[in-house]
Amino acid sequence: MASKDRILRLKEETRINILEAALQIVKEEGWQALSMRKIADVIEYTAPIIYEYFASKEAIILELTRKGFLILARDMEAAKEKHHLPAKQLEAMWLAYWNFAFAEKELYQVMFGVNTNCCELAKIIPESEAPYDLIAEALEKMMTQPTEDEVCTKYFTFWSVIHGLISINLVNRGRSEEMNHEVLKTAITGIIRTIND
Amino acid sequence: MASKDRILRLKEETRINILEAALQIVKEEGWQALSMRKIADVIEYTAPIIYEYFASKEAIILELTRKGFLILARDMEAAKEKHHLPAKQLEAMWLAYWNFAFAEKELYQVMFGVNTNCCELAKIIPESEAPYDLIAEALEKMMTQPTEDEVCTKYFTFWSVIHGLISINLVNRGRSEEMNHEVLKTAITGIIRTIND
DNA sequence: TACATTTGCTTAACAGTGTTAAATTATTTA
DNA sequence: TAAATAATTTAACACTGTTAAGCAAATGTA
Question: Rounded to whole angstroms, how far apart are CA atoms A171 and A169?
Fold first, then answer.
């Protein structure tokens, strides 16, 4: 009964088609536009048959998330293998991580909970620039020859660490209080040390 | 006609009620559970009257976002005023920022695009731990006396900077390529310097 | 070949969403 | 009191995820 195999192969194929269709829609219109009926449209079926392959929309998203982690791991491993010095390996792996985030930004978004809906905030909400102004003022006083560019760079360095740590804590909550404190301290003193340097 | 004033005051009041109801629902059930009909239930009206006060659900969310930025700015200003040394001011302001994020985590989420849906990822997707394993291995080789705790701390320090910078770039896209590179380099070399220190 | 059964797929439906228009009720004005 | 205006609701539309019922084609069995 080789026809059984053929049918199983076909089923596996539409499973893949569903995932590909979903990712295609997300890449074209964003996560919020993803719907079961749209996926069905792309694979030229009606919505209910998707449930023969996935328990829910959530399950499809989860599978894409899993695929994302597999690609990320593959990229980081490849980067690691190109070097022998641990320090170089570190640098290469984080660069691979960085590149992955932008090459597969839709996957990165769902893997680490990054919403892109609220872009161009400053134009709609002017108040959103207050934090920058406050920090920039202090930074300028600390620098011997402050330039707009340098202040901005330092600001983003600080902001990145802190926002990153907050995001990580909010998304997969937990971590010990001490570790957070340690991370913050290490990062902030490390960055402050690089001012006028 | 003082009754005009009274009516205007009442209208202003239900406007506030709508915003408070929305925030209440979000705090109790999360952003994804927020709906116009639920808001209407809380303020004891039917959904359509909300449109007399806000053009859309999006507008309500935007107003809450704005309120969030106002609170954040107030907190940071208060922190700044308590110190004179710019370095101390910086530290205090970032701490205020940090505290705000957890005190008003729902507001922080919508202000900076942090999704909390995908928590406890490691339990559902084991592959999500691969990046940690890869990085940890390299970190251990670099440390003279590596402990699990220390490796973890360093990992999170790195991850925070990079994820933070990525998030910021994805959410309000833009920034110059050079600045990103500069921020990354500054942060990474700064952190590496603190290893075995 | 003829019938029964399973499979693949679709249509219809339910409960929910944001949003709008029409209908209704209450309030104010003349 | 009657007319006009404002406040509020009901009904509806187009969408969402999801489930159950129906149908039609392929398959298994006699």
Answer: 6
H runs (alpha helix) in chain A: 2-29, 36-42, 57-81, 86-103, 105-112, 121-124, 130-142, 148-171, 177-193
Nearest to A73 among B90, B102, B127 (CB): B127
CA distance to A128, B74, B135, B137, B150, per residue, from B146 (Å)? 41, 42, 13, 10, 7
- 3-state SS track over B131-153: HHHHHHHHHHHHCCCCCHHHHHH
Stated pTM of the model = 0.90
The interface residues of chain A toward chain B in range 166-185, judged by CB-CB distance below 8 A, are: 166-173, 175, 179, 182-184
Residues A106-153 pLDDT 10s: 999 999 888 877 656 777 888 888 888 999 999 999 899 999 988 888
Nearest-by-CA chain A residue for B123: A172
CB neighbours (10 Å) of residue A55? 10
| Lowest-confidence pick of A28-42, A164-178, B90-104, B131-145 | A164-178
Judged by CB atoms closer than 8 Å, whether chains meet at B183 and A175 is answered as no
Distance from CA of A144 to the nearest CA of B (A): 13
Strand D at less than 7 A from CB of A51 = yes
With distances taken from each CA to the C1' atom of nucleotide D16, the closest residue turns out to be: A35
> A141 near A135, Cβ under 8 Å?
no
Q: CB B156 to CB A134 under 8 A?
A: no
What is the C-alpha R_g of chain A? 23
Angle between helices B130-142 and B148-171 (to 10 degrees): 130
